Records
---
Amino acid sequence: MNTTSQKKSGSAAHKLRERVKELSCLYEIAQISGRPAASLPEILQGVAEALPAAWQRSKNASARVMLDGAEFCSGAMLPPDRGRIEPIMVRGECRGEVAVGYPSLPPDSVPSFLEEEDRLLGEVARQVGLIVDRRETAAEQERLRAKLRHADRLATIGRLAAGVAHELNEPLGGILGFAQLLAKTPDLPDQARADISKIEAATLHARDIIRHLMVFARQTPPCDKRVDFNRLIRDSEAIWGARCAAAGVQLVYALDPDIPEIIADDRQLRQVVTNLVVNAIQAMPNGGSLKIETSRNGTWIRLLVKDEGIGIAPELLPRLFDPFFTTKDVNEGSGLGLSIVHGIVTGHEGTISLESTPDCGTAVTVQLPIHRPPTHGESHEQA
């Protein structure tokens, strides 16, 4: 075999070895991304660790995968100007990059990158973009399915609640009426009077739960008018202001005077504010500061109700808007307050979110659209 043939044979063998390394790398990445239990960070770390083996000087090569500011490396930190970089595109948006280089070698010892290596890096970046897209699409679909399940559950509970409320309201009214008549009996023994008082209190508590059930089951669409939200909050203080004072809770207002009027049902929004404030008061048995803030966020107005109360455990947060779920004592809540708030806010095409840290307090944020077509015809009367 002559020298020319040997060179051609050696070059072909080298290309074949490089091709095998590239295919092995892509296969390993496919294996990593196909693990159902693997999280996205685990997949990206696996991609970074699989890449160096496909390069000429694999022992000296290092890879870096960056996505949304998070970084995953296979070895030594790769300087920005050393190596090859390909962007990670997800739905037309650059979300990060994949880079490979030789950070441990002096600049004059870095081998030239092969055309095949450049193609491989581009393919890996494309595959990472597809992996991210598939994961995010699956997560969004699951969120939508969960939202549909929640809506279906609320509708079922609403129908059940309406029936239960109707059936219980009448007998409870009779119990309360007879208890009040008995309380007027002259010369009633003290123990009997105390027992009747307990019957009255328990019946009133039950009727309060029934009232919440009826509000929850009604799911009345908003009756819209122009609403000055700051004024609505100030006027609502008459409902819970005395309760704040009695509980040692200091109200701190930060109302943006420049927020515009919105189209909304003022009675329903008053119930939202009242429920959130009462929840905050109940979360501060030793008193504290309660902040009520309004602001504008683009095409939305934002309400923040923030307390310094006992907070909520992280594992309970996903259930807070579920009907009948409550963290309060048996006689302190029906578990419908936040469900009603959630229903009113979503009925106004708004959003509600909650953040809480145990022993540090809770912050509830409500956002309502400034411009929304009125549901029952807009009234120019100001609320």
Note: Residues 3-141 form a domain with the Beta-Lactamase fold (CATH 3.30.450.40).
---
Amino acid sequence: MPDGSSNTAGRTVLTYGTFDIFHIGHLRLIERLAAMGDRLIVGVSTDEFNAGKGKRSVVSYDDRAAIVAAIKGVDLVVPEESWDQKRKDVVAHEVDVLVMGDDWTGKFDDLKDVCEVTYLPRTAGVSSTEIKQLLSALDPRHLEEMSQAVSTLTNLLEHYRDLT
């Protein structure tokens, strides 16, 4: 287990994520992680693992893994296929520090016996989930709903004007 020093020489850093609809928050995270050591391993959630969590990716696993692998500072991409693989990955890759987003704070503290565990704050104002929600408004079904809502509001305003 690491001695807790701030020296990054020889340190292997590991993180996991879906990395769907790659955005600036993902890039900033990878840059921060790369600066924490001199070897960065990124576990990218497979489509099957995401489906088991009730999530559906817009971008396929193969494409997401290729995008992450192409980022400067990423040394290895591994598929994240299950919750319990983290301990195995830490041991197999001789990981010094596991870093996760602060939305997971405390969830992986059981790994502190094999590596340092750190939780970083997410980049404010951007997430794949928020981007997906914004894009869903462009879905033709939602556009029809919005059109009906605007029509209803217009009728209400006209009725209100007639009353005044």
Note: The chain has two domains: 12-126, 132-163.
